[in-house]
């Protein structure tokens, strides 16, 4: 049997994607270390430490705000409202059933005004998690399909993806800050450096231009891997991949316009890319469907 048709165990899929995500995160860290090493040779080591201190202060500030306020920031940014247990009984019942199956605490439930079929999860840990679905998802998905989407979002919660994505975003932000400070400092750099310093300076300029692009691409790759992991987690919770497959097919063929009110920083949290772009923050829908069909 070829790899194309071989069955996939959701447990293997989860473990494999977690390993790949960790490996990609190591790449971001190595880029940061090598970039700092080059700068320390191109300039005085003391200059490098000044850059690092500034970058760390900004990054830690961002980390603390994002980590402790991620759920509130995400909900407020899309104009979501808390779901009513009386009005959205099926929504509550499905999530409660999934929390029993997964062993997770009950998250807070919200609804976002949008005709798109979509959803997202946020929160620093399972005890502070929120799940938000669009009005379009509640209207257009049947019970099994909605259960698959909600199980996917609980998969993100169970895998601590918000914490992971925040940490990666901070590391990517540090590279971007260091690059900007380094490039701007060249305007104030005096002459009189030897050839060795000049070589490292040229390498530093090349890295300052390329490093933010490389780590951004790695960040997007990590985001895509986490989507595959959450899909596999959804199968683990429901033991029924067909519901999630049908939900993805409905998203593929729906004709709702790109979501204008969603910030690009929040987009990676969504079940499907709200901007309808392919291959950036989310894997292509066809690839996700094919992978689920083999489970």
Description:
This protein has 295 residues and is mainly α. It has one domain (10-293). The chain has helices at residues 10-42, 45-77, 89-102, 135-140, 143-158, 161-185, 195-238, 241-253, 285-293, and strands spanning 81-82, 108-112, 119-122, 130-134. A hairpin with a 7-residue loop joins strand 3 (119-122) and strand 4.
What labels would you give this structure?
mainly alpha, 295 residues, 9 helices, 4 strands, four-stranded mixed beta sheet, 65% helix
Set out the fold topology:
Elements: H1 10-42, H2 45-77, E1 81-82, H3 89-102, E2 108-112, E3 119-122, E4 130-134, H4 135-140, H5 143-158, H6 161-185, H7 195-238, H8 241-253, H9 285-293
Parallel strand pairs: 2-4
Antiparallel strand pairs: 1-2, 3-4
Helix pairs in contact: 1-2, 1-6, 1-7, 2-6, 3-5, 5-7, 5-8, 6-7, 8-9
What is the overall number of helices?
9
Q: What class, by secondary structure content? A: mainly alpha
The tally of strands reads: 4
Give the end-to-end Cα distance, rounded to a whole number of Å.
15 Å
Which outline best applies? elongated
What is the count of structural domains?
A: 1
The ordered H/E elements are: HHEHEEEHHHHHH
């Amino acid at each position: 049997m070829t790899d194309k048709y071989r069955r996939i165990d959701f447990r293997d899929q989860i473990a494999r994607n977690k390993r790949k995500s960790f490996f990609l995160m190591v790449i971001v860290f190595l880029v940061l270390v090598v970039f700092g090493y080059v700068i320390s040779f191109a300039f005085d080591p003391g200059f490098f430490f000044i850059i690092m201190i500034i970058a760390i202060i900004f990054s830690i500030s961002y980390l603390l705000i994002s980590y402790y306020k991620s759920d509130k920031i995400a909900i407020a940014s899309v104009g979501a409202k808390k779901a009513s247990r009386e009005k959205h009984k099926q929504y509550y019942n499905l999530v409660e059933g999934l929390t029993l199956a997964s062993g997770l605490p009950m998250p807070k439930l919200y609804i976002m005004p949008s005709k798109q079929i979509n959803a997202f999860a946020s929160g620093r840990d399972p005890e502070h998690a929120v799940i938000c679905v669009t009005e379009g998802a509640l209207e257009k998905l049947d019970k099994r399909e909605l259960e698959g989407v909600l199980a996917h979002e609980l998969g993100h919660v169970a895998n601590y993806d918000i914490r992971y994505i925040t940490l990666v975003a901070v590391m990517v932000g540090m590279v971007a800050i260091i690059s900007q400070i380094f490039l701007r400092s060249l305007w104030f750099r005096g002459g009189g450096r030897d050839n060795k310093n000049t070589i490292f300076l040229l390498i530093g300029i090349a890295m300052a231009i390329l490093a933010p692009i490389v780590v951004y691409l790695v960040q997007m790759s990590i985001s895509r891997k986490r989507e595959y992991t959450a899909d596999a987690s959804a199968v683990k919770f429901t033991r029924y991949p067909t519901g999630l497959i049908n939900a993805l097919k409905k998203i593929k063929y729906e004709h709702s316009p790109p979501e204008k009110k969603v910030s690009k920083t929040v987009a990676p949290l969504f079940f499907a890319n709200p901007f309808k772009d392919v291959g950036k923050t989310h894997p292509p829908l066809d690839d996700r469907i094919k992978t689920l069909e083999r489970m």
